[in-house]
Amino acid sequence: MAMTGEEKGGNGASNSCCGQARAKPLVMPLISDMHTHLRQDEMAEFVTPMIKKGGCRCVLVMPNTIPPVTTCAQAAAYRERLVRIDPNVDYMMTLFLSPEVSADDLRQNAKMCHVTGIKSYPKGVTTNSDQGVESYEQYYGIFEAMQELGLTLHLHGEVPGVAPLDAEEAFIPFFEQIHSRFPSLKIVLEHVSTAAAIQAVKRMPANVGATITPHHLMLTVDDVVKPDAIKRAMETAAHRGLCCAEAVEKPHNFCKPLAKTKRDRDALRQVIQDGDTHFFLGSDSAPHPRLAKESSPPAAGVFTQPLLLAYLVSIFAELGCISKLREFADGHAAAFFGFEAATLEENLECAVIQPTPQRVPSIFKFPGQENEGVVPFMASLELPYTVEVRRFSPSLLKECDEI
Predict the structure, then answer these.
(1) Is residue 107 in some structural domain?
(2) Which of 312, 325, 319 is closest to 402 using CA atoms?
(3) Would you say residue 67 lies in a domain?
(4) Does this model's pTM top 0.85?
(5) Residue 203: is it exposed, middle or buried by C-beta count within 10 angstroms (0-12/13-18/19+)?
(6) CB 33 within 8 Å of CB 351
């Protein structure tokens, strides 16, 4: 990550990421996060109120709870629980692709239950994916129904058993095969992290897209894994050892898919600078208790929800493409999924972005617990921008530049 004069912080990130902040405040509509984990029970109660604080109006909720969400009725019940926590967010729901998913259920209930799509997890590759997919052919009937209904297939694009630096690229033929077999099916390749995946998505028509996370725009494998472990692993054909417990040096930067090389990160950055409409925001914000992240092996996931827009503004400003942020963080997804793009309207909430540095908290503490909570991305480091959610009025345009 680029430097701002801050060296390593509490989460082991190499620096804070961004150059000097702009002198004038910015204003923009709230954003849409097309990939987030809100968990369940006490964790859901803890993180769901942070959605709006992070500048979001709309989230696509992942289904890998325990047990996973596999029916429209379960999705509706999950959504009701989230609405009770914060009714001012639009929750788009997904099902977990498994034998329990029914085409008849989708046809009869998906729309009324706010089910937007189905998430595919290869078996065992990430958190709560033990019931994941081993073969896609058995789900062709489900894909036919999804294509008919306009539902979206969300793919975690890694091949189990393949070394972490290669697992995403190895998945691309499966991704292309599904599109070839179901050319009208809306497909999202989630949290792309490689130049190869970027190129594969760019070759696709408009009904195929991909999400990009803030942390994959900032991290490389060097920010996660011990340098000597990388060197040893790269000396073997299979790159073995990159995700073993002793190899992860900075667990709060550890996620699936693993951050890749500088070349891969540069490809992600270039595509957002280009404003390619295939690509849109999906934070993959994935909260885990601090002890789970700092255990051996560490839980996979980076927590970005409460500061999501602040991370994004900092990245886009550093890359000199702040004018592309609004479309990446809302407009492209709105066009892909078919909802209305956010606008600045009087008395509706908006995000005011101040060029005021802020220190990322070292931890978001659980209520009543002094030392336990969730450690955010870039903990204890400095961001050059602060985001405030407030009601829009035309007078804001006199003091702020609109994105």
Answers:
(1) yes
(2) 325
(3) yes
(4) yes
(5) exposed
(6) no
pLDDT tens, the chain, 403 aa long: 543 333 333 454 444 444 455 679 999 999 999 999 999 999 999 999 999 999 999 999 999 999 999 999 999 999 999 999 999 999 999 999 999 999 999 999 999 999 999 999 887 555 554 555 678 999 999 999 999 999 999 999 999 888 889 999 999 999 999 999 999 999 999 999 999 999 999 999 999 999 999 999 999 999 999 877 666 665 554 444 455 556 899 999 999 999 999 999 999 999 999 999 999 999 999 999 999 999 988 999 999 999 999 999 999 999 999 999 999 999 999 999 999 999 999 999 999 999 999 999 999 999 988 889 999 999 999 999 999 999 999 999 999 999 9
The CA distances from residue 4 to 7, 316, 318, in Å, are: 8, 15, 11
- Residue 329 sits at the vertex; the CA angle it makes with 1 and 346, to the nearest 5 degrees, is 130
The CATH number that applies at residue 46 is 3.20.20.140
Q: Could you tell me if residue 396 is inside a domain?
A: no
Minimal CA–CA distance to 352: which of 6, 30, 1? 30
Q: How would you classify the pairing of strands 208-212 and 279-281?
A: parallel
Structurally, the chain folds into a number of domains equal to: 1
* 81: containing domain: 32-344
388 in any annotated domain: no
